[in-house]
């Protein structure tokens, strides 16, 4: 009898194994480091509160340093050696896309924290994501341009996974919105000067606004060079820079820049009627109290990924991977830091354009554009 009790207890306490690959160091560390902090913090909090249905959560986390080949080898390790139940991570689009064939073949649910639409379009059976897509960012910028009666756009993009995908989506969105792209310039992820490309835009008599698609240091370099050249056109960035780190890197040059971002960065400015208000306000407080630094949308992506995964474990009644995958796909009405998530067999992200807010940088902080 005693043996039965012990065996039962052992089975009940089997951990929920959450794997993660993040770019906690390297060029994308300002995305990956807050993601890492959040996963570790909330796994600890959940375990102290009794785990998931009495099971502790075990986090197995690897840092790919922003290298796609490392992301692939760590994903292989998570699946084959660590035998995780679900993977939350892939800080960048390049790292995510390196992991995709492995999770599809291994049939392990994977919730990416990266931005490009290619991650979930076309739909891949085992792959989901929490952030808004680059396509949504492009659509939101075009919407704002039309409100401002701007019809001619100059595009500047980084020749990386996110930058390339963002460029493609911006070209499509512009065409559908009746906005003419009058310049199309690119820069390298490690470039420390983009003056040559921006000088062409400055000398282009047709350009009425500029949109930059990139991650890390690049967008800040573009912003500084832009101001140094005295370009007076409205400057847009993507949600890839929705972190105070961008404002710090760009300094005063960031003043007046607009970008689409999650409600998280303007939590206190959201109306009380907004369903996200309570969630983002609470998350901001927990993050800032624990880490003594400003919250970023990237921290929020990790929180949403973890909560969606663990909620699915509860609804699936355990960690059978096929049932867990189905439960993630059936996520409905989850109010997260990125918006209200309603997934389906055709939509493995589940966010509408209304989950995005247009924000403007004023006096070194985010301001909601009314």
TrEMBL record:
Leucine-binding protein domain boundaries: 15-350
Domain of life: Bacteria
Pfam families the record matches: Peripla_BP_6 (PF13458)
Keyword annotations: Amino-acid transport, Signal, Transport
Signal sequence interval, chain numbering: none
Family annotation (InterPro entries): BCAA_transport (IPR051010), Leu-bd (IPR028081), Peripla_BP_I (IPR028082)
Signal in keyword set: yes
Transport in keyword set: yes
Similarity annotation: Belongs to the leucine-binding protein family.
Name of the featured protein: ABC transporter substrate-binding protein
Native organism: Azospirillum isscasi
């Amino acid at each position: 009898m005693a043996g039965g009790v012990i065996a039962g207890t052992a089975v009940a306490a089997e951990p929920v194994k959450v794997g993660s690959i993040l770019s906690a160091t390297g060029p994308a560390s300002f995305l990956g480091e807050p993601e890492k902090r959040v996963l570790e913090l909330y796994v600890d909090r959940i375990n102290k509160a009794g785990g998931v249905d009495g099971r502790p959560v075990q986090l197995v986390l690897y840092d790919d340093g922003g290298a796609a080949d490392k992301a692939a080898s760590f994903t292989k390790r998570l699946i084959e050696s660590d035998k995780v139940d679900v993977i939350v991570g892939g800080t960048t689009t390049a790292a995510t896309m390196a992991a995709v064939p492995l999770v599809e073949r291994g049939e392990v649910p994977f919730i990416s924290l990266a931005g490009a639409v290619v991650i979930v379009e076309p739909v891949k059976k085992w792959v989901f994501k929490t952030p808004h897509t680059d396509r949504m960012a492009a659509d939101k910028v075009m919407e704002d341009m039309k409100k401002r009666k701007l019809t001619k756009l100059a595009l500047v993009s980084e020749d990386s996974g996110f930058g390339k995908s963002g460029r493609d989506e911006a070209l499509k969105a512009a065409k559908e919105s009746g906005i003419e792209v009058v310049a199309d310039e690119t820069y390298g992820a490690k470039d420390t000067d983009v003056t040559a490309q921006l000088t062409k835009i400055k000398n282009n008599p047709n350009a009425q606004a500029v949109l930059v698609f990139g991650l890390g240091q690049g967008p800040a370099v573009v912003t500084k060079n832009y101001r140094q050249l005295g370009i007076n056109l409205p400057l847009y960035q993507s949600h890839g820079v929705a972190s105070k780190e961008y404002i710090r890197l760009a300094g005063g040059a960031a003043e007046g820049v607009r970008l689409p971002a999650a409600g998280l960065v303007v939590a206190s400015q959201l109306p009380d009627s907004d369903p996200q208000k309570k969630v983002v306000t609470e998350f901001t407080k927990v993050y800032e109290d624990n880490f003594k630094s400003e919250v970023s949308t990237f921290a929020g992506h990790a929180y949403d990924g973890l909560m969606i995964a663990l909620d699915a474990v509860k609804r699936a009644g355990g960690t059978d991977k096929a049932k867990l995958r189905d439960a993630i796909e059936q996520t409905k009405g989850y109010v997260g830091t990125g918006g209200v998530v309603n997934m389906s067999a055709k939509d493995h992200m589940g966010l509408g354009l209304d989950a995005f807010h247009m924000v403007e940088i004023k006096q070194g902080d985010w301001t909601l554009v009314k």
